Each structure stands twice: as C-alpha cells, then as structure tokens.
Amino acid sequence: MNIRFVGIIVRPDSPQAEEKGRELAQWLNQQGIATAEQNKIDPAMDLLIVLGGDGSLLHIADSASQHGLPVVGVNMGHLGFLSEIAVDEMFQTLAMVLAGESHIEKRIMLKAYIINGTSGEISEAVRGLNEVVIVKDSTAAMIRLRCWANKEYITTYRADGLIIATPTGSTAYNLSAGGPLVHAELDSIVLTPICPFMLESRPVLLGSDTRITAHLLTPAGEVKVIVDGELRWRITENDYLLVHKAERPFLVVSSPWKSYFNILRTKLNWGGDPIDLPLPEKVCKHC
C-alpha cells in the first residue's frame, strides 16, 4: 500500500485526542506523508486514522467505505472492539503499515431503506457497520414484525424489536440481546429478536447475500429504526424495511499485536490466558 496522503479523525471534545492528533500529524510529516486538516475525509486519501473510541469509528464508517479508505482505529475510548490499536502501539503499528506489513480486514456493511407499502416509494439509503435495529418506544406494548429472507417468509416476531446485525456488530447490541458471536470477517447477517414473547424465537444466522424485509403489523405505537446508534426513521404499519449487504466493505487495519480472540477474551472478561497461546509446533504443522 503506497501511502502519501493521510486523514486524521479526532474524538470530539477530547483534549488528549487532539494533542495526540497533532503529534501524529508531525510524525507523519517526518515520514514524508501529507496530512489533511483534522476531521476531514478526502477521497484522494490513502489511509484514515481515527483517534477515539468505537463510536468515533462508527461515525466515519460509511464515508470511509464509500471511498475505499483503509482505517486504523486507535483506541482512546473504553471498549475498543473496533478500535483495536492501543495508543502506545500507534507509531509502531503505523510504521508496519507504511512498510506494507499490515493486514487489512474486510468487514461487511449493511444498507437499509424504507419502502412505502402503498406507493412503492423508497427512501434514501442508509448504511451501517454494526446493526440496523427496529425497536418500540420503551413504554409501548410489544410489536409484531413479519420478516422475509429474500422472498421467503421467516416468521412473525412478537417482541420489543429486531436486530439485524453484521458480524462486526455481533459483539454490540446483538450480544446483549442474546445473539451469537460471529467472527468479524465472515460474510453473514444475524437476525436477533429483542425480548421475544415466545422464548423459542431464537437468533438466525443468514448468508450475506440475503435481502431481509420486515413489516410492522397493527396495532403499533411509536416504532423507530436505529442504524449504528442513530435514529434514522420512525415507521408505521404502511412501511417495509429492506436491509441487505452494502456494495462496499469497511476496510480496517487489524492489530498486529492482538488476535480476534485475544480481543474477545480481554473485552468480554473470558477466562484463560490474556496472551495468545501458540499451538505446539508438532501439532501446528497439521493445522
């Protein structure tokens, strides 16, 4: 990867991130690399560096994927599922990126629309890296959602809502709602009902080429569609939500210091050693 122009996105209202951003720009300039004004994304960039938490990375995911920009997420937040690089690893990781020694993961994005059931009118598309969520108002009764995979009817969920998640988003709201963990580089989509009336309503794992349609049935109170934590639409019984895999993936530079399962063990407080234990060499050669 030939890097000549880099963007730096800084977590808002964080003096520490702003200071680190200035330090990073100076370091990049010393490597002969031009940097844009902070918090600007330019299609001509070769790389985007995000100093913040997972929320900061989610905020730029759509723009970065549309421009095909690889992203280095430096964790200056709390969880760090998406922002894998620790601050004290930043310069060493970037040196490896500049030397062409980094691994870039392709994470699928979701694309969502609202279709009017009477006119067939379709809304502007919205893309998300983690999930698309249909959820009722907290004080309303549970809702009923008909759901199709492509044109095949799945079921009618009676629940507080429905999560349509990517593998990347499987560690977010999906996990809290009882959905499965899905390896981040798999091509799949997870359907997870939120607090279903029937306990037999379990999460469903679908192929990433599946087009998911959900339709709200009467009676229903205020129902919202939230994409990556941001309210996008309020829907009625006349609306159909269509969700499918976006055309372009999100490109993220993975940490050279931590494996996917290392991150899960650390962030989810699993048992076992915090470091990655290698297989014995005599076993490894057969794997």
Helix and strand layout, with pairings?
Layout: E1 5-10, H1 15-30, E2 34-35, E3 47-52, H2 54-67, E4 71-75, E5 85-86, H3 90-98, E6 104-107, E7 110-116, E8 126-128, E9 131-136, E10 143-149, E11 152-159, E12 161-165, H4 173-176, E13 188-194, E14 204-207, E15 212-217, E16 223-227, E17 230-235, E18 239-245, E19 250-253, H5 260-267, H6 281-284
Parallel strand pairs: 1-2, 1-3, 3-4, 4-5
Antiparallel strand pairs: 6-19, 7-8, 7-18, 9-12, 9-16, 10-11, 10-15, 12-13, 13-14, 15-18, 16-17
Describe the structure using short key phrases.
287 residues, alpha+beta, six-stranded antiparallel β-sheet, 2 domains, globular, Rossmann fold, Tumour Suppressor Smad4
Q: Can you characterise this structure?
A:
With 287 residues, this protein is of the alpha+beta class. The protein folds into two domains: 5-107 and 249-282, 3-Layer(aba) Sandwich (Rossmann fold), CATH 3.40.50; 110-245, Probable inorganic polyphosphate/atp-NAD kinase, domain 2 (Tumour Suppressor Smad4, Sandwich), CATH 2.60.200. 19% of the residues lie in helices and 35% in strands. It has six helices and 19 strands. The protein has helices at 15-30, 54-67, 90-98, 173-176, 260-267, 281-284, and strands at residues 5-10, 34-35, 47-52, 71-75, 85-86, 104-107, 110-116, 126-128, 131-136, 143-149, 152-159, 161-165, 188-194, 204-207, 212-217, 223-227, 230-235, 239-245, 250-253. It has a six-stranded antiparallel sheet with strand order 8-7-18-15-10-11. It has a six-stranded antiparallel sheet with strand order 14-13-12-9-16-17, with no helix packed on it. It has a five-stranded parallel sheet with strand order 2-1-3-4-5, sandwiched between helices. β3 (47-52), α2 (54-67) and β4 (71-75) form a beta-alpha-beta unit. The radius of gyration is 21 Å and the shape is globular. The mean pLDDT is 91.
